[in-house]
Write a structure and sequence with these properties.
The chain is mainly alpha-helical and 648 residues long. The protein has 29 helices and four strands. The protein has a four-stranded mixed sheet with strand order 2-1-3-4. β3 and β4 form a beta hairpin. The N terminus and C terminus are likely disordered.
């Protein structure tokens, strides 16, 4: 890897390109669907913090660092981030657990700086996009998920400096200073002790210190990311520098967010959902825990790999909460016994109940190649990075696990250019076998709340209310863009008051405003087409392969040339695609190409609206016909199944 030109020579390094874009970012630059995620992300993070503070570990955090409403924003940020990370109840993006810095830092500084609602949302957006991109550039390396502590260097610097409306040169120096001393978490503390909280706290402290230095004139290396001896070379096995700057203003990492319904690692979320489903079946069958002979969890390599790592450490009633979060047997057993998994299940007296550990001993994990294939094909947690790596992906995956290399999608799949249909398909299947021979089974293609799973606003609001938060807060978040500085201060106080048993801090009265920017009116209304694609993808398992191939090629051709006609999709091209792409790849091509096309249409310059309206309508008709054929296919299959059952 060669170094980009240094800042002193006038070259636009990765940091400079990011800084120039993010420092000028406005809320109106992002589509409404992206802005909607910011409210869900805020509520989800506030809920994670509230449940964290309610745990004995959270109370110790508050004693050590104070609460989230204290006058010192730096200490408040550390406390709030550690409380939110401690139960693993946070949201996740394609690349990184962003919110511990990207939400926390703007929130704590909003009260001091008297930010209005739009300004707070803009700071979160700028932090998300900056941190996610830097994280993605190093995601094919030793640190991912919460272990990628460097995420919070970028999130902290971007979140604070955007809140301050700092110029790009300050960003360049702040990021350069921070990434000159990135954190390197060690596995023993991270996986099984309270040290996991420092994966957020330490980089936040470094990032805030870097901001102070940059604002005072301290200089950092502008090429620290791509330098031959810089961050990406040290932190990535396969550096992906293009991920840091690809699609600025069009490829929105914020809409890859997934929201956790249950506390715990994302790699076991679907298994817990399946266990919740099976719990209802056990009750209906009149079975009790002693009737269970074994519980088999089938999952991807990511799930089975986490289970192996977790079992290598002693995990029992006296384990730290970090270890419990990674324990698939304990969490699945708890969900089977109680029909849910809540933060209270990670503390006494629940964690001390012997029946949970007795059932946990009956849980075993099996690798399912089909679930691994689906995981690697998804946007998150690795799919986009693997597509960006191209020919280097096979070598990296094979070094990590030779089995996974055999499940990789075709190397010719290109990276996504639009994340509106992003997915995180970390699925699972749980089978409960009883001593009398009966079986109960449940399957989830992905965890509840995962990217691509549908509505997130209601889910995040319900999560916040379950944390014991003030019932007015979700309504205030929904109106966040219209809140003035007093409204933002009231929202934050209401949301976090009592979370760490502290009084509200007095709010400074300094005013700060930045004029907004009017949203560009799009020349083409693509909402109906986007909805049609979304419905089609929801029923894609029943769409004939040839229809999928035609739709994928149509979307690609239209995005590339602006010309659409079903006759122009040549039969030979469809046949060639069918010969080279299995069904799951066809579905994914429709998803990727549809998102890319919609992004192109959204950015279409004004003019010739009548032509484009006809083009969009024609394509929507084709998509809806394909969806209808899928419904008819399901109906025919159902009738045949009913006939077979009747004949039996």
């Amino acid at each position: 890897m060669t170094s980009a030109p240094a800042d002193a020579s006038g070259g636009r390094t990765l940091i400079r390109r990011l800084a120039e874009w993010a420092s000028d970012l406005e809320l109106d630059d992002a589509p409404d669907r992206v802005v909607a995620h910011l409210g869900s992300q805020l509520l989800s993070q506030l809920a994670a913090a509230r449940t964290g503070y309610a745990h004995p570990l959270g109370r110790r955090i508050a004693r050590a660092y104070g609460g989230p409403l204290q006058p010192d924003p730096a200490r408040a940020a550390v406390s709030l981030a550690m409380a939110a990370i401690c139960l693993d109840h946070d949201d996740t993006a394609y690349a990184g657990h962003l919110s511990h810095s990207c939400v926390t830092v703007p929130v704590v500084y909003a009260r001091q700086l008297r930010l209005e609602g739009r300004q707070l949302l803009t700071a979160i957006l700028a932090a998300d996009e900056t941190a996610a991109r830097v994280t993605a550039a190093a995601t094919l390396g030793p640190f991912r998920g919460q272990a990628a502590a460097h995420t919070h260097l970028a999130g902290t610097v971007a979140g604070r400096l955007r809140a301050l409306d700092a110029p790009a040169r300050t960003w360049v120096n702040g990021l350069g200073l921070a990434f000159s001393v990135p954190p390197w978490p060690l596995t023993p503390g991270f996986l099984s002790t309270d040290a996991k909280g420092f994966a957020a706290a330490a980089p936040i402290q470094t990032g805030l210190t870097a901001c102070d230095g940059a604002r005072a004139g301290l200089r950092g290396p502008a090429d620290v990311l791509e330098h031959p001896e810089g961050f990406l070379r040290r932190y990535a096995d396969v550096p992906l520098p293009e991920e840091a700057v690809a699609g600025l203003g069009t490829l929105w990492h914020t809409e890859t967010l997934s929201y956790k319904v249950h506390p715990g690692s994302a790699y076991i979320g679907a298994a817990v959902d399946c266990a919740v489903d099976c719990a209802a079946g056990l009750r209906a069958a009149g079975a009790d825990p002693d009737d269970i002979a074994e519980v088999v969890v089938e999952g991807s390599l990511l799930t089975s790999g986490l289970d192996r790592a977790s079992r290598a450490r002693h995990i029992g009633p006296d384990a730290d909460v970090a270890a419990l979060n990674f324990s698939l047997p304990y969490n699945v057993a708890t969900a089977l016994l109680t029909g849910t998994l809540e933060p209270a299940d990670l503390m006494p007296p629940a964690v001390e109940r012997p029946e949970r550990w007795k059932l946990a001993a009956k849980v075993r994990t099996v690798h399912d190649p089909h679930l691994s294939r689906a995981a690697l094909l998804s946007t998150a947690p690795l799919g986009q990075a693997l597509r960006r790596a191209g020919e280097h992906a096979d070598t990296w995956v094979r070094a990590a696990d030779a089995r996974a290399a055999d499940m990789l999608p075709p190397s010719w799949l290109a990276p996504e250019t639009d994340f509106r249909f992003a997915t995180k398909r970390l699925g699972a299947r749980v089978t409960v076998r009883l001593h009398d021979g009966r079986e109960l089974s449940a399957h989830r293609a992905q965890a509840a709340g995962a990217a691509g799973g549908g509505e997130h606003t209601a889910l995040a609001g319900e999560k916040y209310l379950r944390s014991g938060g003030h019932p007015e807060v979700p309504h205030m978040v929904a109106d966040m863009a219209g809140l003035d500085a007093n409204g933002v201060a009231e929202l934050i106080s209401l949301a976090l008051s009592g979370a760490a048993d502290e009084a509200r801090a007095e709010i400074s009265r300094g005013e700060r405003r930045r004029p907004g920017r009017s949203r560009r009116t799009l020349s083409v209304d693509t909402r109906a087409l986007e909805g049609a694609y979304g419905r089609l993808l929801g029923s894609a398992d029943s769409v004939p392969d040839r229809e999928l191939a035609e739709l994928a090629l149509e979307a690609a051709a239209l995005a590339a040339s602006g010309v659409l006609s079903e006759a122009e999709v040549e039969t030979a091209a469809v046949d060639a695609l069918l010969a080279s792409a299995p069904r799951d790849v066809l579905v994914d091509l429709v998803r990727r190409n549809a998102a890319h096309l919609l992004g192109v249409l959204d950015r279409m310059p004004a003019g010739d609206e009548g032509h484009w309206a006809r083009v969009v309508e024609e394509l929507r008709d084709h998509v809806e016909r394909a969806q209808k054929s899928a419904g008819e296919q399901r109906g025919t299959s159902g009738e045949k199944s009913a006939e077979r059952a009747h004949d039996g």
